Amino acid sequence: MQLSREALLRAYRQMKVIREFEERLHVDIQTGEIAGFTHLYCGQEAVAVGVCEHLDADDKIVSTHRGHGHCLAKGCDVTGMMKEIWGSREGLCKGKGGSMHIADVDQGMLGANGIVGAGAPIAVGAGISAKIDGKGKVAITFSGDGACNQGTTFEAMNMAVVTKAACIFVFENNHYSEHTGFEYAVGTNGDIASRAEAFGMKVWRGDGTDFFSVYETMREVLEYVRVPGNGPAAVEFDTERFFGHFEGDPQRYRGPGELDRIRETRDCLKKFRESVTSAKLLSGEDLDAVDAEVLAQIEDAVQQAKAAPRPTADDVLTDVYISY
Amino acid sequence: MARMMYREAVVSTIAEEMARDPNVVVLGEDVVGGMGTAGGPEAIGGIWSTSTGLFGQFGADRVIDTPISESAIVGAAAGLALSGKRPIAELMFADFIGVSLDQIWNQIGKFRYMFGGKTKCPAVIRMAYGAGYNAAAQHSQAVHQILTGMPGLKVVMPTTPADVKGLLRTAIRDDDPVIFLEHKALYGMKGEVPDDPDFMIPFGHARLARAGQDVTIVSTGLLLGFCEKVADTLAEQGIGCDVIDLRTTSPIDEEAILDSVEVTGRLVVVDEAPPRCSLGSDICAMVAEKAFASLKAPPLSVNPPHTPVPFARELETAYLPSIDKIEAAVRKVLSYR
């Protein structure tokens, strides 16, 4: 399926926003001004965007501790997110959540999640809700090659099949669960999709470093799951994580030259640029213009986040309950 | 008023609320019972008979029989709640919070706060708790002390069928996550229940089960009945007990306890969970902090010992606070100085 010029530009912009948002965080975190733990998604942008470009606000996603990309791709406000990560009371979660707990339910973004494997059961519930409503909406859970080893993910896959939830398990294999290789930790010879298949789901596989592979694969997956009664499906994307598990991770587990190699050969933004310019769908100038706009947008978001009001001690006590 | 059992109050309230609000759904293990068997759906209807008839009335979309997957049950309730539904999830035994605690504690209890107050999570997690069936260490526990300590959750512990009716309706209509603890030894208890289809009991409002001037006894659940018996015995001897049924442990009706202790000056808390970091120690500490000047005796908490729940009849009987133990504690507090 041929994407329109507008759709291509939009997809590129979405990926570029995630990339620059995080490249900037990587720099700013080193100044010590940003508190807490941050897990960067950089390198995996094609997955978040290739999935979420198919969705609207009534489709739900549940994300992970490495959630910035999913949040941005699903429509969370860039400045609101930057303010949140900087801990402002004007942040998307009023400075209560931080990097690992960004959510925007109005956008169908049911939360990043600090607990590895916790998202899949939540997506099953959202998928049951979508099934009950019968409007062809879906719920998607993103899980890494780490989360795929959690029992909660197994329970969720089985329950999704049993309840015929309109749920999609998107597995992003970035080759490392924290600091451990997937070939060691994923007992099925590193094959995640086969597990989902064993639970009774139809499965797909795609190249998570290629936007077009992700986008086309997801078109098929969504076509299937949006049919009432078909139940869940799963898809595994092979992808790359450009930074460590967390910011500050010395990454001694990487092979010699590995980071340079994956940045050179497995960069979804580079691949996108090469693909659309060689096919003459977009020009280099088109993309350069997006790059410049995005950099300016991120700079503006950072400046706003730095200047935004800080929370006060009184804010600790709000929003625990609606009424108590 | 209608006379019904505690378990009937559970299922009738759920049915009434499901009829009233199409967003209310039920999920859990064997809430239908018999799925995939020769006996067919509703061959069982829930082991506690707290979901009997719901499947027939509301269908498979809204009465969701799940595999034995407690994490996924509570997690699915979380996802349903975030998607506009009002799930009522059942954990067959409260002891099974162990395998679903992340979803209870880190997920539903924290969404609203972590997400900056922009979302609600109207999930009810029902579970049967408590000793009395010789079900031993993994099927007999009172777990309220664990859950009451978790910010973001409300914790309800009804004692009577009327309280089940009024508190469960409040729980289902509440926009915050609610843990609803049903004492399994009370399921057969009968009582008068108001007919009003909107009968609700607000959380954080204790019930005065007996009124007296000499000592305050605070409890809830199965042991509340033991406390009432002790109060009745002592009343015959001219000793008046305020017996306060907490109904909810989060929020807790501090005012009712403090008002009573200001009159009686003496406090006994009767708690089915073990003593360390317990509801009993919590209330005794609260009273010591806030009503110290009113106290005529040290507050006392009656709990089981710091052991797992034992199996054999003699052992379980020895484990649980009994009428005799409660009476002895009350007399000890009364005879201080």
UniProtKB/TrEMBL annotation, chain A:
Swiss-Prot/TrEMBL catalytic activity: N(6)-[(R)-lipoyl]-L-lysyl-[protein] + pyruvate + H(+) = N(6)-[(R)-S(8)-acetyldihydrolipoyl]-L-lysyl-[protein] + CO2
Cofactor(s) the protein needs: thiamine diphosphate
Domain Dehydrogenase E1 component: 13-313
SUPFAM superfamilies for the chain: Thiamin diphosphate-binding fold (THDP-binding)
UniProt KW Transmembrane helix keyword: no
Keywords: Oxidoreductase, Thiamine pyrophosphate
Coiled-coil segments on the chain, per record: none
CDD domains with a match to the protein in the record: TPP_E1_PDC_ADC_BCADC
Role of this protein: The pyruvate dehydrogenase complex catalyzes the overall conversion of pyruvate to acetyl-CoA and CO(2). It contains multiple copies of three enzymatic components: pyruvate dehydrogenase (E1), dihydrolipoamide acetyltransferase (E2) and lipoamide dehydrogenase (E3).
Protein name in UniProt: Thiamine pyrophosphate-dependent dehydrogenase E1 component subunit alpha
Annotated source species: Novosphingobium cyanobacteriorum
From TrEMBL, chain B:
Lineage: Bacteria, Pseudomonadati, Pseudomonadota, Alphaproteobacteria, Sphingomonadales
Name of the protein in its database record: Alpha-ketoacid dehydrogenase subunit beta
UniProtKB keywords: Oxidoreductase
Domain Transketolase-like pyrimidine-binding, residue spans: 4-189
Alphabetized PANTHER family for the sequence: ACETOIN:2,6-DICHLOROPHENOLINDOPHENOL OXIDOREDUCTASE SUBUNIT BETA, PYRUVATE DEHYDROGENASE E1 COMPONENT BETA SUBUNIT
Stored NCBIfam families: PRK09212.1
